[in-house]
Amino acid sequence: MDLIKTLGSLVDDALLVIGHDLVITNANPASIRLLGDKVIGTNLNDVIIYSGLAEELAACLDSQKPVEFTATPTNNHYRHIRARMMIWGEDTLIVLLLDMTLQHNLEKMRRDFVANVSHELRSPLTSLIGFVETMQNSPDMELGDRQRFLNIMDEEAKRMSRLINDLMSLSKVEVDEHIVPESKVFVKSLLMATINVLSNRALKTGHDIRFHDHREQKVTEPVIRGGNDEIMEVFQNLLDNALKYSFPASIIRVEMHDYANGRLAINIINRGEGITEKHIPRLTERFYRVDKGRSRQMGGTGLGLAIVKHIINKHRGELKITSALNKETVFSVILPYATD
Ligand code: ADP
Predict the structure, then answer these.
(1) What pLDDT is attached to residue 312?
(2) Rounded distance, CA 256 to CA 98, Å?
(3) Nearby residues of 278 by Cβ (< 8 Å), 6 or more positions away
(4) Which residues approach ligand 1 with their CB closer than 6 A?
(5) Which atom of ligand 1 is least distant from the CA of 305?
(6) What is the pTM of this model?
């Protein structure tokens, strides 16, 4: 019985047998998936990139103990491999290659996220500290200046508060993203309520939010399974963005349609500068903004669409975004109708 064949079919990771000359003499199917189909007969140096391979081999032969190192496959520089090598028999060694790409990327995302959060909190905090110090050192400050400073401080404190609220929403939905909420959500009533909540703001900016129901069964209330508060958060975030990024005093359309495969589509449509194609796939990443200054000025946190995406995923739905420069922007939320 070929031990490598048996072992190799038991594990999902790549397993190679190499000679002391580093030439690969046997490989399991996972190795082919990771390193390409010309593995057997090739030198290990040609399928992975690691400059210290000869030294690792010497250390392994010398100590008779396993050695471990990290490398990159020659055919794909974006993958990260953790390699373990040990002697097996007279003149052969076994090499186990663990694909660590997912863990590596998750770890990088976590580090980037912490760095981003710190940065986002630091700027309003620095500004707040600066104004507090200025006011402490200027006991005779004029009333007008004092009021102006207090207004800025109020705005910065609110910015921090919004950011923390959004972070909490994001972490809450991420924790139970795999649990599909079960209660009934009456979508039309919820949409009307959300529009109502935002109507004062729309009035101030001269926006007109118009609702259209294009479903076949208009008389019935569309029902989905979900969490009322979470679905409301989706509509609120999307309508809030429509108000922020559209031309002042323009029309915002909220439309409901029947969609393929027993689903309901809610489209939120606005006219503004639009979004260039290259940005669209990245909009739901945390802290991704097309124009950071504009988002800041509008009181954005850069987390709204990330929250929206997670809530929709949790409801087994889909978010589609279509836009182009100087064209209409459409955010479509597609959710399965409740079947009972
Ligand atoms: P923000 O707090 O910056 O609004 P979001 O996650 O809600 O964060 O949105 C991310 C980015 O997507 C925004 O900064 C903006 O550049 C873009 N965006 C979102 N909605 C729209 C829209 N309706 N029209 C144009 N751009 C939008």
Answers:
(1) 97
(2) 48
(3) none
(4) 237, 241-242, 245, 270, 272, 275, 283, 289-291, 295, 300-306, 329
(5) 6
(6) 0.82
